[in-house]
Amino acid sequence: MLSSLYDLFIGPFAEFDFMRRALVGIIALSVSGAPIGVFLMLRRMSLTGDAMAHAILPGAAIGYLVAGFSLPAMTIGGLAAGFAVALAAGAVARLTVLKEDASLAAFYLISLALGVTIVSLRGSAVDLLHVLFGNVLALDDDVLILLSSVATLSLLTLAALYRPLVMECVDPGFLRSVSRSGGVVHLTFLALVVLNLVAGFHALGTLLAVGLMMLPAAAARFWTADITRLILLATGFGMLSGYGGLVLSYSAGANLPAGPAIILAAGALYLGSLLIGSQGGLARRLLPRPHLQR
Amino acid sequence: MKPLVATKAVSPVSAIRLTDLTLGYDRHPAVHHLSGEIASGSLIAIVGPNGAGKSTLLKGIAGALSPLEGSIAVSKGKRLAYLPQSADLDRSFPIHVYDLVAMGLWNSAGIFGRIGFSARAKVEEAIAAVGLTGFETRPIGTLSGGQMQRALFARLLLQDADVILLDEPFTAIDARTTADLLALVQRWHGESRTVVAVLHDIETVRRAFPQTLLLAREAVAWGETGEVLTAANLLKARRMVEAFDSHAAPCERDAA
Fold first, then answer.
1. Closest CA to B80 of B102, B55, B59
2. Do B95 and A174 touch (CB under 8 A)?
3. Which UniProt keywords are listed (chain B) (predicted)?
4. Are B55 and B198 in contact (CB under 8 A)?
5. Does residue A201 belong to any structural domain of this protein?
6. Which residues constitute the domain of residue A174?
């Protein structure tokens, strides 16, 4: 019994280097991605994260076109495309009648089509799948270093920006009245989003990178209404999904690709929280406790 | 119309000087050729019918709207605090009353500054001053309208500003809360801060505000409250506010 539990939950990681690397990569992604996801959610920018994830595709694809599966080329391409779309969408929203969400949607649809086209120009369908869904079981040293550097940088930046960032979310008018930092804070935050999506892209691909950011954050919201706990819980949920997804994918053999398994695990956490979460979960709604005296 | 000077000078220094100020949206003036001074330490109400440009004027003074013409000068070194009519505050954000109030410490704490023991005491004090003791750990989403306004006043207290701008601070708020918050306004006046408040309730203005600006895009009257709020002036103000005319010609009045 014990040995079978060991085989299921610990064995794969003890035995295989690629499993350990995958776990480390996902933990690094969760540490920085989850807090960013929490802020995206609280600022009602969940879909912005999704759009940005797609927007980095053509940049990464051009990097791929130029240099094949080269980490620096695809990273630089992805960052450039992500920043360009973020700034362009912001500019369109400010200068024309279109709202930011509509302009983001327009840009990311174009980006996605462009990216798929560019990858297909040179690579095979397998390459395309790799770009879209990543390959979390093939993280080499360079990718791990990139992921952990991004995590470190993001955490330090978030710590530095924490106060104005929270104020910008709660009461942007007030922040504007006491400080000019609002714009800088917003742009820096967007830069962090792009940076983490590009990092996530190497492990999970463009389509799933945003999943590890948003799903843990959304799940955590069903358990607490305190921002500090929200961030801690989301990070924990992210790591847990990474671990659960890897175990799931390993025990299912080659049939279940690891990247989607991780997102499915995060999705299961989300659905579970949605059902039984103590803060506005469905069960609480269906079985209300008696109200208090005062 | 001849520009009116705001006050018979409690202190001769002006906190805010408006010079031929025109503020508006899409070239349509909401405040039109307004000139005058608000003396340092004065407690002044801005009243007028809907659409008279009261909120616009406050926005302009707060620096949230740049003038179409003319200028607004806030005297050097004066710190402004501005409470807008409907703060674009996200009430669903998971944050406690304490933290919301503590935002008022921004000027002393900034991005990194530590909020230490004495600052914490100040926050507690401000929360107590608005009668919200016991609400510190309540999420802001659970506050009633009046309680929220109390919390925002506590934040204003902490801002420790020299000039305080309030846009309809007592709208949709019960009599007791209004009385409590008015007492804070009086306290600020006693500390010789400059308070400018947009108000609707003429009775409150008569009772609590020594100075009044009656605005209807232009100043109808500006000075001692008793002399400003006459029936004739109020009627005049009501007549002067009309809808935007989308075919209006450019204003040809001289800048003087």
1. B59
2. no
3. ATP-binding, Ion transport, Nucleotide-binding, Transport, Zinc, Zinc transport
4. yes
5. yes
6. 1-281
Whether residues A172 and B93 touch (CB distance < 8 A) is answered with no
- Nearest CA of chain A to the CA of B87: how many Å? 7
ipTM: 0.79
* Contacts with B, A 18-47, CB within 8 Å: 42
Query: What is the β-pairing status of strands B69-74 and B80-83?
Result: unpaired
A155-205 pLDDT, tens per residue?
A: 999 999 998 999 888 888 888 888 888 788 888 998 999 999 988 888 888
Exposed / middle / buried, residue A125 (Cβ in 10 Å: 0-12, 13-18, 19+)? exposed
Q: Is A291 a domain residue? A: no
CB nearest B94 (choices: A161, A174, A226): A226
Q: How far is A171 from chain B (nearest CA, A)?
A: 4
Task: Measure A262 CA to nearest chain B CA, in Å.
Answer: 28
CATH number of the domain residue A245 falls in: 1.10.3470.10
Whether A227 sits inside 8 A of B95 (CB atoms) is yes
CATH architecture of the domain with range B1-78+163-170+194-256:
3-Layer(aba) Sandwich (3.40)
| Averaged pLDDT of chain B | 84
The pLDDT score that the predictor gives to residue A178 is: 83
Q: Where are the domains of chain B?
A: 1-78+163-170+194-256
**Is A171 in Cβ contact with B89 (below 8 Å)?**
yes
Residues of chain B neighbouring A224 (CB-CB closer than 8 A): 94
Which residues, 6 or more positions from B191, have their beta carbon under 8 angstroms from its beta carbon?
A: none
Give the count of domains, chain A: 1
Task: Give a yes or no: residue A146 inside a domain.
Answer: yes
Question: Which of B69, B1, B11, B44 lies closest to B237 in space, CA to CA?
Answer: B1
Residue of B nearest to A43 (CA): B93
What's the mean pLDDT when you consider all of chain A? 85
Contact between B95 and A181 using a beta-carbon 8 Å cutoff: no
